Amino acid sequence: MPKVLLLHTGGTLGMEAGRPGPLRPGPFEDALRRRVPELWEIAEIDVEIFANVDSSDMEPSLWQGLARRIHERILDYDGVVVTHGTDTMAYTASALSFMLRNLPRPVVLTGSQRPLGEIRTDARLNLIDAVTAATRGETLPEVVICFDSRLFRGNRARKLKIAEYDAFDSPNVPPLGGLGVEVVIPPIERKGGDFRLLDRLDTRVHAVLAFPGADPRPHLEIVRSGQVRGLLILAYGTGNLPIRGERSFLPILEAAREREIPVLIGSQAIKNSVVLPLYEGGAQAEALGAVGAGDMTPEASIVKLMHALAYGETYDEVRALLRANLAGERSD
What pLDDT is recorded for position 18? Predict the structure, then answer.
């Protein structure tokens, strides 16, 4: 039988219903064997409790530990399944895609909208589908999210729904496969190069949301404080920013350039791509050194900024890494 390593990190899937109180992390492996015994008919599964946290408590140090554990163990298995809370799953999937470069086997993240112990849970099917995808071995050398019978590239996926079972989508690329009546997961060609662990992150990043009436002064103070090394601005549409009067974002960009703080500009729009030169606000931002995020998700953008700051030795090297397509996270 195929061999799969299942690493549990917490989240709703493994929680115990605390109703009428909140959901809380609970025991996992015993519940898994009792409620989804079919998993062991699909593969020989080793279960490890890596962490047991609500996904709101997921943090970069846990990403690093998870990446190291996967790097140590994955060649002993056909694939790895990571059970994870849905709220930050797209961040973790993006982080693993940058850290586990030239991955030789699948790393499949899954979770659920309702705990495994509830009658109408989606956890059972998501687990069965995730283990099925993980058995694909060398034909699926990707970090993916498996949810509601669809398979998404991890650094392209987003949680778009709170109270529906089809919570995830990948707005700018089609799903990598489907697990309906038939399992359809076309093989993916592995990129060349050695399998490497790139687990450094620089978390000194700051994110700014543009909105009508936004006061740029608090963000300008943060940039000038020396506390941040990278900046993500979620702008309008194709990367357009306010540039008139006291609400102008240009002083933020000027201060960042003076201090050689790389600026990545993404969009609040869900689909399509940032094109900075299209409008004056974006064009002026580009002239001040900002890099457009293309069609990257906000989740992938913030994690990629942490990654690029850790591996780029100069301001220009970081900006070049932000422009590059490192792990399928952007189209241009």
Answer: 54
Q: Which token pair is 19?
A: 């109703």
Out of 86, 88, 110, 297, the active site residue is: 86
Q: pLDDT tens, 230-289?
A: 999 999 999 999 999 999 999 999 999 999 999 999 999 999 999 999 999 999 999 999
SS (H, E, C) the chain: CCEEEEEEEECHHHEECCCCCCCEECCCHHHHHHHCCCHHHHCEEEEEEEEEECHHHCCHHHHHHHHHHHHHHHHHCCEEEEECCCCCHHHHHHHHHHHEECCCCCEEEECCCCCCCCCCCCHHHHHHHHHHHHCCHHHCCCEEEEECCEEEEHHHCEECCCCCCCCEECCCCCCCEEECCCEECCCCCCCCCCCEECCCCCCCEEEEECCCCCCCHHHHHHHHHCCCCEEEEEEECCCECCCCHHHCCHHHHHHHHHCCCCEEEEECCCCCCCCHHHCHHHHHHHHCCCEECCCCCHHHHHHHHHHHHHHCCCHHHHHHHHHCCCCCCCCC
- Computed over every residue of the chain, the mean pLDDT equals 94
Residue in 279, 295, 297, 304 annotated catalytic:
279
**Choice among 78, 159, 202, 295 that is catalytic:** 159
Annotated active-site residue 9? The verdict is no
Catalytic pick among 3, 54, 87, 311: 87
Identify whether 315 is a catalytic site residue.
no
Per-residue pLDDT band at 32 (split at 50, 70, 90): confident
Catalytic annotation on 304? no
Q: Please check the confidence at residue 13 and state whether its pLDDT lies above 90.
A: no
CA dihedral (203, 204, 206, 207) in degrees, to 10, reads -20
76 assigned to active site: no
pLDDT at 21: 53
